[in-house]
Structure formats: C-alpha cells, structure tokens
Amino acid sequence: MTREVPKWLFVGQIDTGYINTAQMRLAVIRRACPLAEALCDIKYHRLGGRWGGALFRKLTFGPPISLLNRDVIRLATRVRPNVIWFDKGNWITGATLKQLKNICNPTLVHYTPDPAFFSHCTRHFLNAVSDYDLVVSTKEYERDAYEQAGALRLKILPPTFDSQIHKRIMLTPAERQRFECNVVFIGTYNRERDRPLIALARAGIKLAIWGNGWEACEANELREYIRYEPLSGDDYAKAINAADVGLGLLCKLHPDQSTTRSVEIPACGTMLVAERTVEHLRLFREGHAAEFFSSEDELVKKVRDALSRPSYRQHIADNGRRRVLELKCDVGEQMDSLIAEVHSVFASKRKAA
C-alpha cells in the first residue's frame, strides 16, 4: 500500500523579482510534493500604492488584509490541500485559520526566519498562533513568547544557506573587478552599522557595502565604499567569494544572535568575522571556524590580522565551510527534515479524526 503524499498549499513572498529564502523553501517543497500550489502574498502588501500600502502595513488593517485572507480561503476551497504552509504569514487571521479547518481540516504550519514578536508582529499573528499545528522559527530568544501565545508545537531551527547558491565560485576577471575587496558587508542599512564599518574604513581597509537603504547613510568615510544596490542569488554569492573577509553584523532593532549571513558567508568559502554572541559561539569555535569581536578596536585588529596572514585566513574559511556542512543547515536538508515532520503531524491528525 503506497503512502499518501499530502497536497500542499504555500502562501508567501515568492514573486519579489529576486531570489529570496521563501523561494528556496518552496523549491524544496515542490521537489518533495510535486502537486504543491502556491499563492504569492506580495501583491497584497503593495495594494494602495506607496503611501496607502505603507499605512496598511503599519496599522495592519484595510482591504489588503481582507483580500489576502479571502483569497487564501477561496484557493483552499478549490484545491482542498492537506497542508497549508504560511511563510511570514503575519497578515493571516485566526478567523481564517478556523474557517480553513472547517473547509478541509489541513495541517497548518507557520514559518518565519524573522523575529515574530520583537518586530514584524501583528495582532493577527498573535491571535492566530494557537490555531497552527506547527510553528517554526529561527529565533531561540522568542521561544517564551511563542509558548505564551499558545503555540501547540514549536520548532526552533538554526539559520540556513542554499548549497545551490552559497558555494565556492570561480569568478571571471570582470566579476572579480566588480566585487573584489578586503571586507564585504551585505545587508540593509541601519545607523548602528555605521560605527564598525567606519572603524574599518579609517584603518585603511577596502570595503564593499551592498544592500537596501544605504542612501540614508551620512558617514563621509563610507561613501566611496557603498554600492547603493541590493544583491541576491548568484551575485550575492559572488560578492562574498570575491572578499577576503565577510562581515557578520547583527540588527540592533531586536536581540538577534545570528543571521542567515552567519552561515552563508562560510558556505561560500570566505572567512566570517562576526559579532561575538552566545549563538555564534555555539555555531562556530572562535579562532578555528570563524573570528568574533565585541568592539570596533577588536574588529579592526581581527581583520588586520586576517588580511596579513592569507594561510590563516584560508584555514578559518575552510573550517567554517566544513562546519556549516556538518551542521546540516543547508535549506534542502533542513526542509527535508521539516517536511517529514509536517507529514507526521498530518498523519497523526488524520488518524485521530
């Protein structure tokens, strides 16, 4: 007797115009579950134009949220999925989840690699947490918040990289000319990131800074190094490959201990120098698979040392790559394990019904 393969519905940000982690997760789901349907929720976030859309996103009310929830219900009614995966589903209401259970009683999963309570939080998500069969996060520091919100089954995972993208790449001369630098940082601008980067620039270290929002940076020391564009996919990996050191700065808007950069940089075979945190120290042995810093002075010292000792830098980079492969935090491996757990929850629900 063949085992039934559940039919999936994926709801998330999958049509952004660039490669993102939601697309990576969906690709793995579709390999395991070929009949998976998908609904992109980006268009709902863009309704109302620039100012109206920003107001809806800030206040989390209005037509975009109503339309998204309506269309999820309509699609589920048509395709009758066994599993619905909500990727960053902070606009999905508890009322919608309850209605979905009445329609086809699917296994309901919520996944986010972002903070769900310290930022990005909505009243809709708070009221819906207890209706999910499984909630998945990468933020250990939010475990208590999930449990207090009534999560029935919670899984905390390490950050992931995609081995199809984040890997060692042979660069062409043109690519090396475009991306080559001593230290690369790829990430969205926030003011707290100025100080470590300024310290490196003042030390005469050649930087390359890529990402959204850097037009707001007022630091004169950084202007020659800012590329004023985001990177994703192959270009993101090539920029990391072209650097001697990849810089792992954390966002200070919430208490992050690691990010996807923490594993993507070593996966590309480049030395990681990142902020010293409990999570980073758990992931990598300092001085063996990565280097860490707790001050600007220490950062400059660690980077200067790495740049002056190529063989040592390569040793750290090789060990770092080996470590992320050992951790099995490739998105494919992690998602395969997670899909198996979702199917187990689905089977248990069906047996109990």
From TrEMBL:
Domain named Spore protein YkvP/CgeB glycosyl transferase-like: residues: 199-326
InterPro entries per the UniProt record, alphabetical: YkvP/CgeB_Glyco_trans-like
A Pfam family hit: Glyco_trans_1_2
Protein name: Spore protein YkvP/CgeB glycosyl transferase-like domain-containing protein
